[in-house]
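About this split. The held-out portion is used to measure sequence recovery: a designer receives only the structure tokens and must propose an amino acid at every position. Recovery is the fraction of positions where the proposal matches the reference. Here is one held-out target exactly as it appears in the evaluation file.
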């Protein structure tokens, strides 16, 4: 029995959508009282994430004629990445949570596409480790993104890692 079967996929999906909704409401509050946050993408990012997760949630998709597939969720995440990139292009200033959203959406998209290929393309119906990695990984990444939007701190040191990698790449140019 997989992680999703034990906890119920509908409830985890709804909890993620609810978490992004609450993060958006919290950031509206912070936006209203904090002058420094108004010049960043935090409120826009939380709105984009909330809208994406509510649009792709089971709650709204259960009434449609077609079933939502892993490819649909990958496309939702790619669209969300596009909208985040557009918001960054216009604002040009981010908060620490921005890299968590980008990294999380890339990880989720990779997991969605991996399971899509496994289930839809290869027609695999046998439970194996990828399914557990997917079911636990997507939910951990979702909750990490929610926490990042709320606390807006570099709690996993991803920004420091990014700076280290970029400075290392600049020091060791091949050309």
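Reference sequence for scoring:
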């Amino acid at each position: 029995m997989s992680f999703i079967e034990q906890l119920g996929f509908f409830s985890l999906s709804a909890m993620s959508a609810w978490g992004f909704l609450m993060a958006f409401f919290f950031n509206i509050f912070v936006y209203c009282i904090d002058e420094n946050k108004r010049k960043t993408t935090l409120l826009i990012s939380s709105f984009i994430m909330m809208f994406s997760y509510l649009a792709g949630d089971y709650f709204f998709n259960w009434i449609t004629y077609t079933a939502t597939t892993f490819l649909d969720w990958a496309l939702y995440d790619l669209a969300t990445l596009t909208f985040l990139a557009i918001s960054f292009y216009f604002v040009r200033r981010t908060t620490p949570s921005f890299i968590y959203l980008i990294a999380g959406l890339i990880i989720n998209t990779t997991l969605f596409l991996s399971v899509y290929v496994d289930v839809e393309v290869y027609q695999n119906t046998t439970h194996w480790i990828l399914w557990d990695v997917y079911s636990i990984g997507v939910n951990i990444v979702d909750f990490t993104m929610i926490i990042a939007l709320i606390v807006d701190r570099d709690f996993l040191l991803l920004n420091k890692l990014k700076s280290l990698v970029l400075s290392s790449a600049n020091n060791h140019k091949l050309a």
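Annotator remark: The CA atoms of residues 4 and 135 lie 6 Å apart.
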